[in-house]
Sequence to fold (494 residues):
Amino acid sequence: MGSVMNKILVVDDDQAVRLTLSEMLSRYDYDWLLASSGAEAIREVEGGSIDIVLLDLIMPDLDGMGTLCELKRVDPEILVIMITGGGDIDAAVRAIKLGAHDFITKPLDAGRLMQTMQRALDQLEARKSVKQLEMCLEWTFGNSAIMRPVIRQIRQSAWSDAPLVIEGETGTGKSVAGRLIHNLSRRADMPFQTIKTMSESLFEEELFGQDEDARVPSEGTGEGMFGRAKGGTILLDGLGHIPLPVQARLARIMAWEKAGYPHDLVVSSLSKAEFVGRKQIRAFLDTLWYPLYFLDFETVMFPIPPYDGMRPYQQLPFQYSLHYIEREGGDLRHHEYLAEPNIDPRAEIAQRLVRHIPKEACVIAYNASFEIARLNDLAEYLPRYRTSIKVMIDNVRDLIIPFRKRHVYYWQMKGSASQKAVLPALVPEMGYEGMEIAHGGAAMDAYFAMCATDDPAQVADIRAALLKYCKLDTLGMVRILEKLKEMASWDSMR
Fold:
């Protein structure tokens, strides 16, 4: 049930949608207000009594994106839930990056709406809990300038549902930080267990119990720490000294999605440690085949689409890099494309990809949902290439999987599975530090700059930087895969 203490603002230019949402909210006893425009919504939020905003993406005058930015400027803490059409997922993701809390899609469904609202209310409650513990943090660490980043990291970490890594020398308070993270988290009322380094047999028994099935942790109370701490937190003190077989089993469990064990179960306290699950790496490698084609796009977004068949804020690819190896032991080759300024590049990109990537190729991308979405956009807009692109999509494999599932973890990754973190951790001589363009946002800005200048020398410089950055993305994938093969001690793919 909703609480009258939390006020919801519904913003939509369509009166029927406003009435539908107000009826749904009333059914669950939420206190709500209605606004028919972005300007009206901003005035309501400036009044200071709104906790959550349900905001339509497409509105006349000031649209949802513009309204979102203004609302966050007025009240950075306000929770905004975007209402989008079924085909506006890219824009919804863009809104999340701009500060929206969540989004729901039309047609509106009461069940999905209430689930989304409950998540927002849970976050409001979590914020209240955090404020109640502010004095505890200040008392523990003080309020000096040098400790403020530590306090900020503890707060942020407590909201995470992923395994956490706490780094620091002996005696610097890692265990205290672990306890505070637990107390600030939604697991605060659940068990908190601490284990320190011991012999391999005792360590395994203490963690997992005496269950003969080595694939999953024991579930019964008294049959291992994972059973006793179910739903709570385990602090592994000195993880770098845990025997490798136990590390491998821990890596499997932290990725386990069954038996009721959540991903947020473990908080790790360590200085320097590595996890390598060779069996899981081999299983991933077994999903790949030659020829191998490593693909990466760079994209740009426009609030007002400049070309036919585009949506506002749709990701438009303007560049790609393609490294490829035709057969095992074959030479590494490279092909790339970067559009000229101020042209629609979609047809040429589709034509080149279909020409250069064989139908039987295994296409590797990092965080592949992005590349798949761009390929789907090309297939939708260019029917003559649709069949070939759909085959390409079916053959995409995601290189992030071993890192997202924690089958491989190095302390240098600092808890992240992104390529920007994984590549320099696995291949120290490679990385993005010091590059003129070092991330996708900078690539987008560079493309806009290239389109805005008439200076041939400046265009040449920007093109060189863009090509260097995108090429590193796919070459980095090649080197990451090589490292995975080394870790698995397995040198052949089918």
